[in-house]
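pinning this so it doesn't scroll away 📌
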Amino acid sequence: MAETARVLLVDDEPMVREVVGQYLQRDGVLVHEVADGAAALDWLRANTPDLVVLDVMLPEVDGLAVLAEIRRTSDVPVILLTARSEEVDRIVGLELGADDYVVKPFSPRELAVRVRTVLRRSRPAAGPASVLEFDSLRIDVPAREVHVDGHLVTLTPKEFDLLVHLARSPRQVFSRTQLLELVWASSPDYQDPATVTVHVRRLRQKFEATPDAPRWLTTVWGVGYRFEP
């Protein structure tokens, strides 16, 4: 990371905050820690972090409520910490706009890698085919902006990454496992492939004129997804 990133770490377990905070600080990240949802919202009203690591099970205000409030005004990347048995929380979190999740108990090293990956992808970076145009759809990669018919479409960082990856390989079919590996830097061993399904559905709802009959993001049944130019 070229400049120091700021991460808000929200967890009610002191040991989790201490260990995770140490791992992130080793990567040169500035970490601000809070123990409950209400404190997180208070801090966010006065500060703008580069990423939020957010436990779902919190006192005062739970993590999903915090995430919903964040998404009302911000597209800051959010990584959820969820209990292994709470698949519903993970799916709801993704629907609300979480960019990634890590299941407890987790390796602090794994979480640090996820944080680096999300931070890297959420920051503007020029690359091949920096502006992608398909009829009324325009994807400005360095600016991380998407326009349809001239109107700006607000995407989360992970939604944007997924769209760019598919759009840069038009008509190529990617399985959910491949997309987990290529976009999330993860695998089914660590993350449910339903993560991809949820993100594709959210993308369609945001910029397809008819989400149930998509123009650009199509499903190849039994295989995966592809972008139709």
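📌 and the second one:
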Amino acid sequence: MLMISCNPEKKEVIAIDVLLTLPEEMYAQAIHLNELMIENYPKSIQLDENHIPHITLLQCFVHKKDIPSIGESLEELFSMIKDEALVAQEFVYSKDTDESFAMIRVRNSIVLIEIHEKVIELLKPFMVKNGTSDSFVQNPDGNPINEFTLAYVPRFVESYSYENYDPHISIGVAKTDFLDSLATDVFEGTVFQPKNLSIYWLGDSGTAQKLLWEEKK
């Protein structure tokens, strides 16, 4: 007898980051800064091949099953920016606290804004609102996804996009006086071209953890 299930197909919701990956020199500088920060503040996020440094274009919730269609919609988009000279402009952190999150600010440009807005336009049909902590790559130590991360992703388009878009490379947390020394003695402003356009499954603290799609070259 043919059995037909009346249960609807389960639609797994995941948190994704549509991002620009970095060329070797810029990638290496981000990793080096992060390693030094972890020596100063071991609880900081760790950047590595499973938590890659990157420039976010969009974070949102989608159905996992839609990733192939999302990737198809983004194909050829990298051509908009692949030859753009991006500028790692400054090492940014708060100087008003004993410890601070730090990032490398990337100078905004007309092309960065255009590709950021185009990604949002293309993904709007796929975005969903019912993401939860289970939508993220879970922490291996069992700690829950932090509240900042849970609040940040669903508000990305509304609060951190368009005129509020601030392209950057997240590095981690350290003591402020140590960040002062990194800004003066270690950080090097540089010009670089992005490596590729990719989709990653997000983990805690906005880390790009699992590659889901990248544009074919």
